[in-house]
From TrEMBL:
Keywords: Acyltransferase, Cell inner membrane, Cell membrane, Lipid biosynthesis, Lipid metabolism, Membrane, Phospholipid biosynthesis, Phospholipid metabolism, Transferase, Transmembrane, Transmembrane helix. This is 1-acyl-sn-glycerol-3-phosphate acyltransferase. The chain crosses the membrane at residues 9-30. Its EC number is 2.3.1.51. GO terms for cellular component: plasma membrane.
C-alpha cells in the first residue's frame, strides 16, 4: 500500500510543480530574457521531484567541475529520475540535448525552448545532425551541454552501447567530456513502469576527458575511455557482470 501512496504523491507533485514552475519560468524568461534564471527553475523542479519520490542522492566528485568553463556531460541513462538527479545536483548552468517529444508537452515544452534546451529528432538523421551542430555552437560559446551517450533509457539498468553522435559533438566543440555514472535510479523507476520505489541514487562525476587529440578516425577510442569511466561508477549488476539478486 505504501508504494501506491508514494506513487500518487509523486505524480500529483509532478503535475502541480510542472505547471507552477513552468508558468513562473515562462514569465521570467519573457520579462527578463535571462535563460539562466529559467534553468534555476528547472533545478528546483528536479529537486522537488526527488523529495516527492523519497529519493536520497549521494554525489561524488562535484569538485571536479569548474563552473566557469563549458563541458559535454555524458551520463548513463537508467530512468526518468536521471533527469531530476542531474538537474538538482550538477552545479552551474547547462543545457539539455533532449528528445523532441518532450517539447510538445504543454508549458514544459515552451519553457524548455525558451531556456535554450535543444530538441533532437532521433527519427530524422538530417535534423539530428543539425541539432548536434547547434549544440556544438552553444558549447563553443561557453555553455555546457548534457547528452546521454546511450541515446535512450536502459530496459534493465545495464549500460547500453553508445551512439556516436554525442562524441562527434564533443570533438567538434573541442571541449572536455565529463563522464557521469548514475547508479540506482533504475530501481526507483524502471523503463516502462509507473510505480515509484523510494531509494538511494549515487552519482559519480569523473575526471574530464580532453577531446583535442581525437577526430573521426580515433573516435572509438574516446568512446571507450568514456565507457570505462562510467562503468567504474556502476554496480556489477549495472555493468552486466552478474545478475541482480
Amino acid at each position: 500500500m505504501k508504494i501506491y501512496i508514494r506513487t500518487a504523491i509523486f505524480y500529483f507533485v509532478l503535475v502541480v510543480s510542472t505547471i507552477v514552475l513552468g508558468v513562473s519560468a515562462l514569465i521570467v524568461l519573457f520579462t527578463t530574457k535571462n535563460a539562466n534564471l529559467g534553468h534555476w527553475h528547472a533545478r528546483l523542479w528536479g529537486f522537488i521531484q526527488l523529495k516527492a519520490a523519497g529519493v536520497r542522492t549521494i554525489v561524488r566528485g562535484r569538485e571536479k567541475i569548474d563552473t566557469s568553463r563549458p563541458y559535454v556531460y555524458m551520463p548513463n541513462h537508467q530512468s526518468w529520475f536521471d533527469i531530476f538527479v542531474l538537474l538538482a545536483h550538477i552545479p552551474g548552468q547547462f543545457r539539455w540535448l533532449a528528445k523532441e517529444e518532450l517539447y510538445r508537452i504543454p508549458i514544459l515544452g515552451p519553457a524548455m525552448r525558451r531556456i535554450g534546451y535543444i530538441p533532437i529528432d532521433r527519427s530524422n538523421r538530417a535534423k539530428a545532425i543539425r541539432s548536434l551542430e547547434k549544440a556544438a555552437e552553444k558549447i563553443k560559446e561557453g555553455t555546457s551541454v548534457v547528452i546521454f551517450p546511450e541515446g535512450t533509457r536502459s530496459p534493465n539498468g545495464i549500460l547500453l552501447p553508445f551512439k556516436k553522435g554525442g562524441f562527434m559533438l564533443a570533438i567538434q566543440s573541442g571541449q572536455p567530456i565529463v563522464p557521469i555514472s548514475i547508479s540506482g535510479s533504475y530501481h526507483v523507476l524502471p523503463k516502462g513502469k509507473w510505480l515509484i520505489r523510494p531509494g538511494t541514487v549515487t552519482v559519480t562525476i569523473h575526471d574530464p576527458i580532453a577531446t583535442e587529440e581525437f577526430d573521426k578516425s580515433n573516435r572509438d577510442s574516446l568512446m571507450e575511455k568514456v565507457r570505462k569511466a562510467i562503468l567504474s561508477g556502476l554496480t556489477p549488476e549495472e555493468q552486466g557482470l552478474k545478475k541482480a539478486a
